[in-house]
Amino acid sequence: MNILVTGGAGYIGSHVVKQLLEETDHDVIILDNLSTGHQKTLDTLEEIALHSKRGDLRFYRADLANFGEIEKIFLTNRFDALLHFAASIVVPESVENPLKYYMNNTVNTTNLIRLCNEYGVGKMIFSSTAAVYGEPSEIPVKESTEKKPINPYGMSKLMSETVIQDTAAANSAFKYVILRYFNVAGADIANRIGQSFPNATHLIKVAAQTATAARSEMSIFGTDYDTPDGTCIRDYIHVDDLASAHIRALDYLTAGNESTIFNVGYGHGFSVTEVIATMKEVSGIDFTVNYAPKRAGDPALLISDNSKIKNLLGWQPRYDDLKIICQTALAWEKHI
Asked: Which of 51, 262, 263, 320 stands 20 to 30 A from 238 (CA)?
């Protein structure tokens, strides 16, 4: 198949492209504006494609907001599936600048769905988020748990999910898998690609940067949450395990199965304090940690119920170990 991957030069998208190139015979077309993706990542993916000698890899530098340019790409290619990663993802920024998130995440996604329908792209895998649940009414969080986002980031993704579902209801030839990520971290086990997002806000990335002295110190945002140690608890998943879920989801749609939604996490969580302690252990560095006020839009507790994706897709994580996640994140920071 010809697979279009939007945001394929970014953190999660690049790890999915890596697995597509190494494990399938599909041709991959990356579309990215390189606002947070990187040319070095593309160069590495080109090397992986050449080494694997399976599918081809091509790249378009384009912005999803340029509807005319994006339509030309659909017009001159025949895509069988869309894997959509391109999005703005920083929760505090979404609170400060909600229009950026609704335009980039919801409006641009809606245009992609329109193009899929007009140009006969029948399969879509959508990068969604546990932020759609807000402060969830039950833990662990099921796919059926009530969706009540508490920030514009989560709402922009939930709105996109709605557009996808309504479109599929009106067009039986359009099938989707929506993957709701929990907290993604770590880097390629072989240390070839990783998270290079500028001004990172993800906890494990920040902790790894502090351990390697790329930052002089880091902060814990809030210590009075309703959790055992007062800091937020999250379900951290290694990026390579998340990537494998996309491969499974693509196989699922290719086999003719019906559209559905999956949580993607490990089903257990760690607090901010526990993550920092683990990064200090694996790095051997007792770096400086400060305390700061809570950030807007941060729920206290998010842990997935991952039984559906395990049962329906047969997905089995390989790197369900906080030390491995921290070690690969740290190795990547040292590499870059």
From this structure: 51
Contact 334, 208 (CB under 8 A): no
CA angle 112, 114, 118 (to 5 degrees): 115
Task: Provide CATH code, domain 203-233+267-335.
Answer: 3.90.25.10
| Rounded Cα–Cα distance for residues 180 and 265 (Å) | 9
Output the average pLDDT for the chain: 96
Asked if domains 2-185+236-264 and 203-233+267-335 share a fold, the reply is no
- Which pair of tokens denotes residue 59? 């790249």
Please report the pLDDT score of residue 176 as a whole number. Answer: 98
**Amino acid letter, residue 333:** E
Note the pLDDT tens digit of each residue in 56-109: 999 999 999 999 999 999 999 999 999 999 999 888 899 999 999 999 999 999
Q: Rounded to an integer, what is the distance from CA 265 to the centroid of its chain?
A: 11
Q: Please check whether residue 330 is in contact with residue 208, taking contact to mean a CB–CB distance below 8 angstroms.
A: yes
Q: How many CA atoms lie within 13 A of 304 on its CB side?
A: 25
Residue 252 CA: distances (Å) to CA of 257, 258, 266, 304, 319: 6, 9, 20, 21, 22
Q: Residues with Cβ < 8 Å from 140, sequence gap 6 or more?
A: 267, 303, 304, 305
What gap in Å lies between CA 119 and CA 92, rounded to an integer? Answer: 36
- Which fold, 2-185+236-264? Rossmann fold (3.40.50)
What are the residues whose beta carbons fall under 8 Å from the beta carbon of 301, sequence distance 6 or more?
136, 139, 225, 226, 227, 232, 233, 269
Residue 216: half-sphere exposure toward Cβ, Cα within 13 Å: 0
Q: Is 252 a catalytic residue?
A: no
- State in Å, rounded, how far the first CA of the chain is from the last one: 33
Q: Tokens standing for 243? A: 């990537």
| CA proximity to 26, closest of 59, 58, 55 | 55
Question: Which one of the listed residues 153, 181, 252, 266 is annotated catalytic?
Answer: 153
**Sequence ranges of the domains in the chain:** 2-185+236-264, 203-233+267-335
Q: Which tokens go with 320?
A: 């369900």
Kind of pairing between the strands at 27-32 and 2-6: parallel
